[in-house]
Amino acid sequence: MGIWSRYNALLEAQPLLVKAMTSLTGFTIGDILAQNFVNQDGQAYDPMRTIRLGSFGFLVHGTTGHYFYGFLDSKLPGTKPQTVATKVLIDQTIWNPIFGLMFFGYLNLVEGKSFDDYKKKIQSDLKTAVMGSWAVWVPAHTINFAFIPPSQRLLYINSIQIGYNVFLSFLGNKKVDGEEAEGDSKEL
Description:
This protein is mostly helical. The chain is built from six helices and no strands. It comes from Skeletonema marinoi.
């Protein structure tokens, strides 16, 4: 049995776990790339940061994506242009900000930061995350909702997510005014 056939068999048998694992992979690879090729500010590679991002992919992105996109497909079935446009609109105006709140909230929690730190992060970076998302996800989701089978949506998203996660990893780990230096923050 080939890799693709095996993946699809596992996806059919355990869709939530497989989607969570693909999100773990996408967020992990995205952070490794971000730390090694984007954040070249002289800091050493931080494996705990990668674990935090990967665990977000596994625990939050994969699971919520499974349910959200399943719900969206059940309420708006089909691939007519109006249906696709509606799904993209819902994804980018409702889900995108919710996702940003979850992303920054999760990192805030696992880093042991305060609720005030979370509010500052939201005020500082949520708008950037949402608007940055539009450049990537409006065209990506137009393809996703028009051409990708529902069972493959999260795999497709996670394939693109690897590159997008470089941006998210950078933004999620960017210091907000008044925040401690990198080495002074709490670990997972």
